[in-house]
Amino acid sequence: MSTFQPDTVVIGGGIIGLTTALALSERGQTVTVVDPGRREGVSSWAGGGILSPLYPWRQHPAVNALAKRSQQVYPELCRQVRDRTGIDPELRSLGMLYADFPSHPPLDRETARDWAREQGVEFQELGGDELPAAEPELSPVAEYGMRMPGISWVRNPRLMRGLRSLALDGGVEILDGALALRLREQGGTIRGVETDAGSVEADRVVVAAGPWSTQLLGQVGWDLPVRPVKGTMLLLQGWHPVLEQVVMTGSHYLIPRADNRILVGSTTEEAGFDNRTVLGSVRALSQAAVEMVPETANLELETFWSGLRPGSPDERPFVGPVPGVDGLYVSSGHYRNGVVHAPASAELLAAQMTGSEPPLDPEPFAPGRSLSEGEE
Amino acid sequence: MSTFQPDTVVIGGGIIGLTTALALSERGQTVTVVDPGRREGVSSWAGGGILSPLYPWRQHPAVNALAKRSQQVYPELCRQVRDRTGIDPELRSLGMLYADFPSHPPLDRETARDWAREQGVEFQELGGDELPAAEPELSPVAEYGMRMPGISWVRNPRLMRGLRSLALDGGVEILDGALALRLREQGGTIRGVETDAGSVEADRVVVAAGPWSTQLLGQVGWDLPVRPVKGTMLLLQGWHPVLEQVVMTGSHYLIPRADNRILVGSTTEEAGFDNRTVLGSVRALSQAAVEMVPETANLELETFWSGLRPGSPDERPFVGPVPGVDGLYVSSGHYRNGVVHAPASAELLAAQMTGSEPPLDPEPFAPGRSLSEGEE
């Protein structure tokens, strides 16, 4: 149970909750994080850590704007985490290679090319004969590749541990193992939250509980259209460096870690809150990995898991005040971009909560925005 | 360390070692089993427990003869284990369905049919339209099936625990966690074995250490041509009964357990003593499972593992006295048929060691038999 009344309670100890708590703390607020302490099935831990939307040229401009702001922040954030906590989030900036295989629909080359030119994003196109030099272990069946050398990634479980440590060092209180049960609201004003370890009173509450946010906000009559979308990952243990960069085809990617591990992702499954890994997903991922990079067939499968992403109808997160309840805020619905969007979402929300200038337009992420098809 | 000098030391606590110890004990001998206590990578634990060679009609008659003897023994053995130890090896006698898919080379129907007729083995052939009734969840792509209703299987890890308990109850001493280091031989006569937990003296030693037998026997100058052959398995957790029987296509099979789990096997990989599971094997097994029974795609993948089978050049085990060293015996090289052949191999060896009538001709399994191609 909390020993003091913080300025703000953040519900959720995932990457959104932790970065939000840090941002508020840096702005002089006292913050308590209510964290059920569960890692299994939580997408902050389960994801791959690529610091870009997977196909940025297909995204809503606001999704890319939020990502861009995060990309500016990440190098310094990772340095801080490493220097202050001794935990290295392994930020790697080795780029990403999108590969075309005859068995898949081809990449939308022109759209990507135009987008990269407009955005000033570094972009290379590679013919089949140029691919072996760019990525020696890529299957020779690949016909064409697009390389975006500016894409980075982190080792997200390490980043999570580091952020947690950073938050604690910075005076953030973390109620570990506490599950938020009920929002406390009175006459249209938030009062705090009841957890299974007691109540915490606060004049401001941020719901950053991923797909579990929906149920909490429903208690105060707010229908947050966020749903769990399961994603499965495989972890391979390499004995030597296999990949130079992230490699992606279709919906599947391979992420090389600094210790020669390779993450294989991912699936998007609508299965409610069931985070068990089904055989069909492992089949799809193992098949895709071997198709892209045949050498992965010889690597050890160390383990596998699945996490629940907070899916949003327009694939944009909900970041801002919850209409109708004073002092209640939400930051959820980041879908596949939780790690990508976390630092910028935290800045955006903290600015709104403290009345300072937001780093980018909050409107596209407003919880009360219209989600009807006609207006998209 | 052993507290007395047993009549026989059995090196190996796998299914061959345990059944051999039991058979000798039943014949009035005192027996000590040297068991490193390792389960990981050991095929007795890792296998699927089908009580038949996978394609019996393609086997050497001696392999089937040994299997047939075991099949006669298993029901009573399983009953004994269950009644005396309370551990149920889950003997299931629901038959096996071999299915033809257009993507695989067709079954050798005529050979199988002839073999079954000659052997008096129950055998049914099913056209594509008859398969749904025989196995409702089998993929409709299957074109033809052969059913052998007499094939049974056990839950081998339970059988192992039960046999161990039965052996201990029967007075067999098990040196748990003891690794055999060296055979002790003097002037052409065995004297015992040195383990990392001390020496055990005995006038008779049985090497039943699976693929690890080769190194031990090499110490006394006997070149046992047994090598590790890795096999990978997947364990699925079903929420409802999916299969009526074992289903097999090509080199892959699905075994339904009584609790709705399904085992998916297996691969044959030459990778020395490396029992790590590689992605390529998981890919092959998951693909085969979904191809045979599409519903498996929706089942939870609970875990996976790999075991090392003791491969033999002619796929027949080596059971009998080791030429040149009095009192030294071997029972190894059972390859994919360790569980199938264990009780009969144990009887066969115990008969030879105690001078009684063997249950079948020992010659095809003699350690000194010729292995040259021309004589096969």
UniProtKB/TrEMBL annotation, chains A, B:
Q: Which residues form a coiled coil?
A: none
InterPro entries, alphabetically?
FAD-dep_OxRdtase (IPR006076), FAD/NAD-bd_sf (IPR036188), Gly_oxidase_ThiO (IPR012727)
**Gene Ontology biological process terms, A to Z:** thiamine biosynthetic process; thiamine diphosphate biosynthetic process
The annotated pathway is: Cofactor biosynthesis; thiamine diphosphate biosynthesis
Its Gene Ontology cellular component terms are: cytoplasm
- GO molecular function terms here? flavin adenine dinucleotide binding; oxidoreductase activity
Report the residue ranges that make up the FAD dependent oxidoreductase domain in this protein: 7-351
What are the entry keywords?
A: Oxidoreductase, Thiamine biosynthesis
Family annotation (SUPFAM superfamilies): FAD-linked reductases, C-terminal domain (SSF54373), FAD/NAD(P)-binding domain (SSF51905)
Enumerate the residue ranges of region (Disordered): 352-376
Show the Pfam families listed in the entry: DAO
Q: Which PANTHER family match?
A: GLYCINE OXIDASE, SARCOSINE DEHYDROGENASE-RELATED
Please give the name of this protein: Glycine oxidase
Organism expressing this protein natively:
Thiohalorhabdus denitrificans
Q: What is the lineage of its organism?
A: Bacteria, Pseudomonadati, Pseudomonadota, Gammaproteobacteria, Thiohalorhabdales
